C-alpha cells in the first residue's frame, strides 16, 4: 500500500516536546539560544544549497518528534497509563538530546522562512512534505543526521475497494462536521476569544470537499491539525504509513471529539451549516484554544510559504508598535556599552533601519543584526572571586566532584594559580594603561596653549612617548595570559566535568562548544551578512548565551575538528580564537567588527593528539588523563555515580543499595572502557529497573515485597547476560600463542592482544594477517632470523648449521583486526611465540610481554607502558615481561595495578626465555657465551 522509495541521509530537526509536524502543514519552530544544533543545521543547508546552486527550500531536511515513554519507536503502545514522571521522561535531555530519544517516524520538510524575534531566539518556518521512517541516526553532533526512508501515499490499487471508499467517505463527512462545530462554537463565543472565522472555515470546507479519494491520506494528515489528539495519538498517526490505517485512526479521533461536543450541545438538526445550539461555553472555549489557533495550511491563511521575515502588523497600532520596538532596540544598544568601533557600526545601521519600512525584507535583517550586537557581552563580566582562599575552595570543589586523578588536580591548581597571578598582573597593567591614556589626553589638551615652536615639538615628543607607552602596555597585557589547557584522554574519564568544576571554582559562567564534526569555517566564524538568514558563529553565539565576557569556554573534541576544505579551514579560525596575539580582535563574519575574546578562559578536550594540527597544538598546554583502574572505578561509582543516578531517577537514597561487589560485577562483566561513562549508564539502567519494581510493588499494595538491596544475581535479570568475560580466560594454552600488549594511539587506552604463529611446509616466507603494518612485518622477520640463528642453542635443531626455516613458511596473525597495529613493540612477543611454536612449549596466557627486539637479541624500550599495564591488569594478566629500559616508566602506574601484576624486567631475549620457561632445559645453551657478556 505504501511503497517505500530509496533511503537517503538528511539533516534532522528534532521537534520540541509535544510537537508533531504532518505532511502538508506548516510549523513555526522557536529556536532558543540554547539550541546550537539548528543554527549548525541551517548553516549546513545553506552550504549545500550554494554548492548545488539550489534554493534553500529545495534542500530537504526532516522533522522528527521526540518519542513518547508510552510508545515504542515504531508507534506500538507499550503502556496504557502515563507514569507519574511522564512529563520528566518526555522532557529529559531536551537540551542534550541523544539519538535514542528520537521517534522512528517524521516528515521531510522544506525550510520556508526564518523570523527574527526579540532576544536571541528566532523562529524557523518549515513545511511538511512527506512521511519518512528513520532507519538509522548517523550523526548527533553538531546536528542530527539520519538515514531515512520516504513513504508516499500510493493508494492506486486500493482506491476502488469498498472498504477504502467507505473509510474515505466517513473521513470526509466527519471532517466537515467537525469544522462546522468549530465554526459554530466560534460564533457563539465572546468576541476576542480564539475562534475559526467564517471565511477560513468556508475555505476549509471547500478544501475538504475538493479532496479526491486518492488524497485520503493527506486529508487524514490535514485533519490532525484540527482534531483534538494526545501526543501519542499524533505519533501513532505519523507512524501510520498505511493510508487505510491512518484514516481509521483519524476517524476514531474525530468521532470521539464530535461525540464530546454533541454531549455539550443540544443538537436538533445537524447540517454542515446550521446547528441550533445550547452549548457549554467553557468546554468550547477550551476546545477552540487548543485547535484553531494553530491551523496553518499553505494557501489557507497562516504565514505565507516562501521566505518571510517577521510578521507585519497593520494600521496605526502597528506603526506605534514599530516605533516602540525601535526605541527599545536603541536603549538595548545603549545599555550594551559597545566599544567605539562597534558603536559606530551600530549607529550607522540603526540610522538605516529607521528609514526602512518594516515590511521590507532588509528591515528584519538589520534589526536582527543590531539585536545580536546588543546582546554580545562587550563589557559585562562576572566578578572573579580569585583571591585569598580561592585556591583552597577550588581544591575542595575538585575533590568534591572527582575522585582520584591527583596529578590532574595538582596541575589544575597550579594552573589556577597562574590564572590568578596573570589576573593581578593584568589588573596592574590595566591601571597603568589608564594612567598613560589619561596622561596622553592631558598632553593633547595642552597642545594649543603651547605658543612657541620649540615647546610645541617638545610636547609632540612627550605625546608620542606617552602613546608608545600605552601601546607597549597593551601588548604586555595580551601576551601575559594564562595558557590554554588541552585535556587529553579516553572518553568518559571526566574531562568535561572537571572543566565544569574549574568554572564553578572560579565563579565563572560555563559554556561547552562541541567542535566534533565542524567542517565549515563559517560555523566558527559565522556567515557574512549578505547571506539570507546569516547568523554568528559558535563563539559569538556562546558569548550571547552566557551574557558575560569572561566565561569558561570548553572547546570539546578539538581533535575532531574538520580539516581545510572548500568550505574554508575551521582549524585556521580556531587558531585565531586561541591565539592571544589575535583573539583580542576576533573577527566574526556576521558581526563584522572586532570582538575581544581575551577575557575568555578556553579549555579544550581531545581523545587523541594525532589529528590536532601542529600550530593549534602549539598554542595549548597538554594535560593527560589516563584510564581508570577497576579499583578507582569502584570508588568513583560508589561515591559519585551511584548517588547521582539514584537522584536523577527520582529515587531516595535508601530505596536502592549498591554494594562494592555489585559495582565490581558491573565494571568487569558489563563494561569494558577506560572511563566511566558506560558504567554510569549501566548504573542508571539498574536504578530505573529498581524504580519500576518499587512502583509496581506499591501499586499492588505490597510494598513489603520490594527489596532495596541489590545482589550480583539481580544484575543478570536487569542487565541481561554478562557482556564481557575475562579475555584471558577465553584463551587456551597452545604453543605459538603469546599475549602481547598494545597502547591504542587514539584515546590513551591500552589492552592485550594475542600473537599467534603457525608454521607450515613452505619456502621460509612469512605471511601476516590481522591488520598488521609494515614495521610489524619487519619485526617478525627480525624474530625469525634470530630464532633461525639460535635454533641449535634453543635445542630446535641437531646441528648448529641446520636451517630450521628451510622447508617451512610462517603465518603470523593478531586477532582483533579492527585495531590497526604497527610499531616494533611486539618484537619480543613474536620471538617468544616462534620459540614456543618450534619447541612445542606453551606460554601461560596470563603472562604478557612487550619490547622491541633486535637482531642481537637485545630487548629495547617501548612507549605507552602506563596504558599497556593498566590494560593488562584489566584483562586479567598476572605477569608482565618488560624491557629493563622501561623500569622508570612503570613507576607512574597506579599502585593498584603495580601491586596486582608481577613485573619482570629483561634486557635480553635469553633472560625472557628463562622467565617464561623457568623449568626448561636448553641442552646446547652451554655453547653460548655467559649471559653478562651477551648484554
Ligand atoms: N574521577 C571522577 N570522579 C567522579 N566522577 C567522574 C570521574 N571521572 C568521570 N566522572 C563522571 O563520568 C561521567 C563522564 O565524564 P565526562 O563527560 O566528563 O567525560 P569526558 O572525559 O569529557 O568524555 P568525552 O571525551 O567523551 O567527552 C561524568 O558524569 C563524570 O562526572
Automatic annotation (TrEMBL):
Lon proteolytic domain mapped to chain residues: 732-919
The keyword Hydrolase is assigned to this record: yes
GO biological process terms on file: protein import into peroxisome matrix; protein processing; protein quality control for misfolded or incompletely synthesized proteins
Keywords, sorted A to Z: ATP-binding, Coiled coil, Hydrolase, Nucleotide-binding, Peroxisome, Protease, Serine protease
Pfam families for this protein: AAA, Lon_C, Lon_lid, LON_substr_bdg
Top-rank taxon, per record: Eukaryota
Motif annotated as Microbody targeting signal, chain positions: 933-935
Record-annotated Lon N-terminal domain positions: 10-258
Localization: Peroxisome matrix
UniProt-recorded name of the protein: Lon protease homolog 2, peroxisomal
InterPro entries linked to this entry: AAA+_ATPase, ATPase_AAA_core, Lon_bac/euk-typ, Lon_lid, Lon_proteolytic, Lon_Prtase, Lon_prtase_N, Lon_prtase_N_sf
Protein family: Belongs to the peptidase S16 family.
Active site (record annotation): 825, 868
Top enzyme category: hydrolase
GO molecular function, one term: serine-type endopeptidase activity
Amino acid at each position: 500500500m505504501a511503497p517505500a522509495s530509496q533511503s537517503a541521509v538528511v539533516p534532522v530537526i528534532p521537534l520540541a516536546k509535544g510537537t508533531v509536524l504532518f505532511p502538508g502543514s506548516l510549523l513555526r519552530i522557536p529556536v532558543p539560544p540554547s539550541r546550537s544544533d539548528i543554527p549548525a543545521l541551517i548553516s549546513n543547508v545553506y552550504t549545500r544549497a550554494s554548492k548545488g546552486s539550489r534554493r534553500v527550500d529545495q534542500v530537504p531536511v526532516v522533522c522528527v518528534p521526540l518519542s513518547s515513554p508510552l510508545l515504542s519507536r515504531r508507534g506500538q503502545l507499550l503502556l496504557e497509563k502515563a507514569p507519574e514522571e511522564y512529563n520528566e521522561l518526555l522532557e529529559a535531555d531536551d537540551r542534550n538530546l541523544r539519538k535514542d530519544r528520537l521517534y522512528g517516524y517524521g516528515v521531510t520538510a522544506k525550510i520556508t522562512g526564518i523570523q527574527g524575534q526579540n532576544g536571541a531566539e528566532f523562529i524557523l518556518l518549515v513545511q511538511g512534505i512527506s512521511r519518512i521512517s528513520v532507519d538509522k541516526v548517523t550523526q548527533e553532533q553538531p546536528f542530527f543526521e539520519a538515514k531515512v526512508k520516504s513513504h508516499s501515499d500510493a493508494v492506486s490499487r486500493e482506491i476502488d475497494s469498498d472498504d477504502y471508499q467507505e473509510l474515505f467517505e466517513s473521513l470526509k463527512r466527519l471532517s466537515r462536521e467537525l469544522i462546522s462545530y468549530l465554526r459554530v462554537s466560534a460564533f457563539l463565543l465572546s468576541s476576542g476569544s480564539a475562534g475559526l472565522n467564517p471565511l477560513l472555515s468556508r475555505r476549509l470546507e471547500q478544501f475538504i470537499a475538493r479532496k479526491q479519494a486518492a488524497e485520503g491520506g493527506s486529508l487524514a494528515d490535514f485533519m490532525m491539525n484540527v482534531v483534538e489528539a494526545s501526543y501519542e495519538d499524533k505519533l501513532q498517526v505519523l507512524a501510520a504509513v498505511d493510508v487505510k490505517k491512518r484514516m481509521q485512526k483519524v476517524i476514531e479521533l474525530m468521532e470521539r471529539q464530535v461525540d464530546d461536543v454533541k454531549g455539550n450541545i443540544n443538537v436538533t438538526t445537524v447540517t454542515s451549516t446550521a446547528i441550533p445550539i445550547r452549548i457549554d461555553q467553557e468546554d468550547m472555549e477550551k476546545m477552540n484554544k487548543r485547535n484553531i489557533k494553530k491551523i496553518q495550511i499553505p494557501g489557507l491563511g497562516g504565514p505565507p510559504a516562501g521566505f518571510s521575515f517577521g510578521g507585519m502588523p497593520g494600521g496605526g497600532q502597528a506603526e506605534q508598535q514599530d516605533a516602540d520596538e525601535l526605541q527599545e532596540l536603541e536603549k538595548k544598544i545603549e545599555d550594551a556599552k559597545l566599544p567605539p568601533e562597534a558603536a559606530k557600526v551600530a549607529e550607522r545601521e540603526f540610522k538605516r533601519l529607521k528609514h526602512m519600512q518594516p515590511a521590507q525584507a532588509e528591515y528584519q535583517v538589520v534589526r536582527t543584526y543590531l539585536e545580536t550586537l546588543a546582546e554580545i557581552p562587550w563589557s559585562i563580566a562576572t566578578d572573579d572571586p580569585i583571591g585569598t582562599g580561592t585556591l583552597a575552595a577550588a581544591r575542595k570543589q575538585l575533590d568534591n566532584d572527582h575522585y582520584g586523578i591527583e596529578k590532574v588536580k595538582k596541575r589544575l591548581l597550579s594552573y589556577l594559580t597562574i590564572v590568578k597571578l596573570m589576573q593581578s598582573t593584568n589588573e596592574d597593567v590595566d591601571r597603568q594603561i589608564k594612567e598613560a591614556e589619561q596622561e596622553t589626553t592631558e598632553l593633547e589638551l595642552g597642545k594649543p596653549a603651547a605658543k612657541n615652536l620649540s615647546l610645541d615639538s617638545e610636547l609632540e615628543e612627550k605625546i608620542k612617548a606617552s602613546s608608545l607607552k600605552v601601546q607597549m602596555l597593551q601588548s604586555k597585557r595580551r601576551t601575559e595570559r594564562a595558557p590554554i589547557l588541552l585535556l587529553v584522554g579516553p572518553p568518559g574519564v571526566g574531562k568535561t566535568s572537571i572543566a565544569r568544576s574549574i568554572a564553578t571554582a572560579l565563579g565563572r559562567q560555563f559554556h561547552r562548544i562541541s567542535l566534533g564534526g565542524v567542517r565549515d569555517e563559517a560555523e566558527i566564524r559565522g556567515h557574512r551578512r549578505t547571506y539570507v538568514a546569516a547568523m554568528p558563529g559558535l563563539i559569538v553565539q556562546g558569548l550571547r548565551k552566557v551574557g558575560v565576557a569572561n566565561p569558561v569556554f570548553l572547546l570539546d573534541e578539538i581533535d575532531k575538528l574538520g580539516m581545510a576544505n572548500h568550505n574554508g579551514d575551521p582549524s585556521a579560525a580556531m587558531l585565531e580564537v586561541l591565539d592571544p596575539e589575535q583573539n583580542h580582535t576576533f573577527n566574526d563574519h556576521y558581526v563584522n567588527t572586532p570582538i575581544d575574546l581575551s577575557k575568555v578562559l578556553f579549555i579544550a578536550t581531545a581523545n587523541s593528539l594525532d589529528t590536532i594540527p601542529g600550530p593549534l597544538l602549539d598554542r595549548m598546554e597538554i594535560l593527560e588523563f589516563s584510564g581508570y583502574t577497576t579499583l578507582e572505578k569502584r570508588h568513583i561509582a560508589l561515591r559519585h555515580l551511584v548517588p547521582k543516578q539514584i537522584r536523577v531517577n527520582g529515587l531516595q537514597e535508601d530505596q536502592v543499595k549498591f554494594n562494592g561487589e555489585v559495582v565490581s560485577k558491573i565494571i568487569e562483566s558489563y563494561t569494558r572502557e577506560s572511563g566511566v561513562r558506560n558504567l554510569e549508564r549501566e548504573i542508571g539502567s539498574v536504578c530505573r529497573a529498581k524504580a519500576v519494581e518499587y512502583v509496581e510493588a506499591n501499586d499492588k499494595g505490597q510494598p513489603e515485597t520490594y527489596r532495596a538491596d541489590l545482589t550480583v544475581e539481580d544484575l543478570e535479570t536487569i542487565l541481561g547476560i554478562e557482556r564481557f568475560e575475562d579475555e584471558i580466560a577465553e584463551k587456551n594454552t597452545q604453543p605459538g600463542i603469546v599475549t602481547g600488549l598494545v597502547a591504542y594511539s587514539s584515546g590513551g587506552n591500552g589492552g592485550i592482544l594475542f600473537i599467534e604463529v603457525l608454521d607450515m611446509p613452505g619456502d621460509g616466507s612469512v605471511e601476516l594477517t590481522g591488520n598488521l603494518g609494515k614495521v610489524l612485518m619487519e619485526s617478525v622477520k627480525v624474530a625469525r632470523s634470530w630464532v633461525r640463528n639460535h635454533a641449535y642453542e634453543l635445542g630446535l635443531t641437531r646441528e648448529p648449521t641446520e636451517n630450521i626455516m628451510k622447508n617451512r613458511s610462517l603465518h603470523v596473525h593478531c586477532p582483533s583486526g579492527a585495531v590497526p597495529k604497527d610499531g616494533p613493540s611486539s618484537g619480543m612477543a613474536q620471538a617468544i611465540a616462534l620459540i614456543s611454536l618450534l619447541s612445542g612449549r606453551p606460554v601461560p596466557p596470563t603472562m604478557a610481554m612487550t619490547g622491541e627486539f633486535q637482531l642481537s637479541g637485545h630487548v629495547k624500550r617501548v612507549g605507552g607502558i602506563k596504558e599497556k599495564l593498566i590494560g593488562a591488569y584489566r584483562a586479567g594478566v598476572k605477569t608482565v615481561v618488560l624491557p629493563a629500559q622501561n623500569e622508570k616508566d612503570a613507576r607512574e602506574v597506579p599502585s593498584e595495578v603495580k601491586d596486582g601484576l608481577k613485573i619482570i624486567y629483561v634486557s635480553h631475549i635469553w633472560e625472557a626465555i628463562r622467565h617464561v620457561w623457568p623449568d626448561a632445559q636448553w641442552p646446547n645453551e652451554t655453547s653460548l657465551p655467559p649471559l653478562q657478556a651477551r648484554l
